[in-house]
Amino acid sequence: MSAVFSLSSADTARLAAADLPPRVRELLGALIGLCHHALTAPLILTVEALEQTLLHDADHARNPQQQADLLAQRGQLHAFAGHFSDRMLDALADALARLREPIAPVVAAATPPPLPGMLGLSLVAEHEVDRDLLLTEMVRRETLRSANALNLLGQRLGVVAGAPAFEADTLPLAPQALCAMVRKLAEQDALSAEVQMALYRSFERQVLERLGDVLDRANALLAQHGILPGLVYTPYLARSSSTRRIITQSVGSGRSGRPSPRVPTPMTGWGGSAPPGSWSTLMQDAFADAAAPGASAGMTVPASSVLHEMLQQARQTPQPAADPAALPSAAVDAVLARLQGQASAASAMTDLQAAVVAQLRSEHGAQASLGSHDRDNLDLLRLLLQQVQQQQRPDPVPAALLARLQVPLARAAMADPGFFVRDEHPARELLNHVAEAGASWLGDDDVDPQLLQRLAQSVQGLLGQDARTPEAFAAANDEIQQHQRAAAHRAELAERRHVEAARGKERLELARRQATAQIDQCCDTQEPPRFVQTLLRQAWADALTLTRLRHGDDSPQWQERLQQTERIAAITAEAASESSATDAALAAEVESALLQVGYHAEEAAAVARRLSTPGGEDESTSRTELSARLKARARLGEHTGAQALTSDAAPRSEAEEASYQQLCALPFGSWFDIDAGEGTLRRQRLSWYSLLTGHVLFVNARGQKIGETTLDALARQMAAGRAQLVTEDKGRLVDRAWKASLSALRTLAGRRPQEPNA
Which end of the chain, C or N, has fewer beta carbons within 10 A? Predict the structure, then answer.
């Protein structure tokens, strides 16, 4: 089953307004949903990484002027960063919605910037030449890396658009189109040339380097929807003047011509389940060394025959070629059908096998036995279910559902020769749904009672049907998948609320840091009295923080607050004398600012008098009384319950640093198995993290917040083995169980287990 991505109301309205056939509208909606799912996190990380770069450069500036320039450049990003990802995704969705128009705006916008040699004799600013060179080189690099996937996607989108295949420079998802969109947004917001250059570099690192995976997923999505499912790309490479060699690579088999990534893809789907694994590939690995000694290199051995041979070797008691006491499969299935009608819930597969043999002997005599084919299928199913049960948690409900599934699974395995070798089978899909539910839930917050109820209903409904037909399992799967899609949508909405709250805390933290930096700079320059510095870092810092949050650091209000800060430092740094007078205008401004952050009128007036008088003196209030009031007062934002997250002061080891760098490149939504104590692992979703503050947010499978930490702390957990990134190469639970079953079978049969890369 292909993934289903929800669309925003704006995207739905955009597609509804386009003059498109229903089938095309459905396909483009799926593509737009895929783009939102795959590109939202990289786009957010693009501007966050850019802000971090500018902050780092400002901290290491050679002089105050350079630092001021860098901070001013970062100020340009305030409004731009807040809407960058949304505007990029809107532009991309608009380009896809206009795919059938004769001349799409994205094609015109994607016109490549002229190369320096094409600029003629016109006078062009040096930074424009640098920008054009940078963008052209970015497009060239990624186009070469993704050439195969771009060609395949161009063919498929040509079918969707009812037009010839799209070239690489006209595809909405091509590097050229995406770079043109970024450039257009940067120019619309009048970002400076330096900021634009830094933005493009960050965009390449965070988005373009991950674009190949997005293109592969787009190709797979269209192929699953029937758009050229067997399409292959066959470049011709000249070997000599008279011969050519054709290299064929297929998308249908999961290969799109891109080299296999060295790092496995993190699992990001809701429910923490990977895409279905290829059981045919697992079987190829299992019987790669099982060919008959006299067979030629080109001959193949049927998978079922190899499994039968391995089982016989494992038993070390060869089955006779023809057992006169063996009953036909129809008789065995009749017994299983009666057991299914009785809703048998045997505790183990061995109990079921014993019950079947006992029933056969009571009906057909004491010598009755299972046929070789039926016995092998039941043994293989027993091996599979044993591996599944080993990964279950002690929850009675999923365990009971697994037990009730044994009889329908046995009938399906005996009726379908491809049960253990086909890449997809509805019965295995249902088994995986039940098994994942019993393996991934640890706390009460993880349990979805509605899903448990739906699973129970599906299993109960299956017991009343002919379980030999795949259609019975497919119907049960459809009901569960409908519920899971709805549950994933609810979890996504809940997660979004927590992420927005976390981003709000991040903005507050960044505003506090900037306010503190400005106050520290004034205190270092003017050196006001120590008590005045305390008032500045507590009361006045809240006023600066609120202004930064409301208006941004490029606003007149923020500039006014900075000027007031400098005046406070300058006035209070003067020595107090009998002729010293309070600056009434400054005192009024300070008092008004403190009232806005919730100070009482009396406290605000007392602080304002000290911050606007030479020496910071005020005879009407004592320092001790004012200090006690400020200490008892909550700072701005503390009422939200935000907890300060600190990182370990010790330097990271080499392994911890490697884990930290890996975390900084992960997509949002990656799943982790984290040590919950007593040897148990709890699966958690890394919903969001900030490269600026290091803050990390975790939710569970229902989108509920279950933890917060820092990138530094999580990296140390990973290096210590207490946190493990869940990757798609590990497969789903039922796929892992079958792989383990084959490994156990090879061991019992005396075969050496295959290496993982073999």
Answer: C
Provide the CA 750 distance to its chain's centre, in angstroms.
41
Q: Which residues contact 437 (CB under 8 A, 6 or more apart)?
A: 398, 401, 448, 451, 452, 455
Average pLDDT taken over every residue of the chain? 78
Position with higher pLDDT, 260 vs 701: 701
- CA distance to 367, 502, 511, 587, per residue, from 713 (Å): 65, 17, 23, 44
Mean pLDDT highest for which of 150-164, 280-294, 313-327? 150-164
DSSP assignment of 659-716 equals HHHHHTTPPTTEEEEEEEETTEEEEEEEEEE-TTT-EEEEE-TTS-EEEEEEHHHHHH
CB environment 393-428: b (16+ within 10 A), e (fewer): eebebbbebbbbbbbbbbbbbbbbeebbbbeebbbb
Dihedral, 197, 202, 203, 206 alpha carbons, nearest 10: 170
Kindly tell me if the per-residue pLDDT of 187 is higher than 50: yes
Nearest to 270 by CA among 704, 720, 689: 704
Whole-angstrom Cα Rg for the chain: 33
Encoded tokens for 391 = 């990964």
- CA distances for 509 relative to 502, 645, 693, angstroms: 10, 11, 8
Question: With 80 as the cut, is the pLDDT of residue 252 above it?
Answer: no
Decide if pLDDT at 731 tops 80.
no
The C-alpha atoms of residue 165 and residue 95 are separated, in whole angstroms, by 16
Residues 6+ apart with CB under 8 A from 107: 170, 177
Contact in structure between 505 and 642 (CB atoms under 8 Å):
yes
Number of helices (H), then strands (E), belonging to the chain: the values are 28, 11
Q: Quick count: other Cβ atoms within 10 Å of Cβ 164?
A: 9
pLDDT digits (tens, 9 = 90+) for 490-524: 888 888 889 888 888 888 888 888 888 889 988 88
Beta bridge partners of 688: 697
Structure tokens at 596: 């806005």
Residue 201 has pLDDT above 70, yes or no: yes
Q: What pLDDT score does 33 carry?
A: 87
Q: Per residue in 422-466, pLDDT tens?
A: 777 888 888 888 888 777 654 555 667 777 788 888 888 888 888
Residues 6+ apart with CB under 8 A from 657: 715
Cβ neighbours for 618, distance < 8 A, ≥ 6 positions apart: 606, 609, 610
Phi, psi at residue 374, to the nearest 5°?
-65, -40
Alpha helices in 573-639 (DSSP H): 584-596, 601-611, 623-632
Using the predicted structure, report yes or no on whether residue 717 has a pLDDT greater than 70.
yes
3-state secondary structure of 727: strand
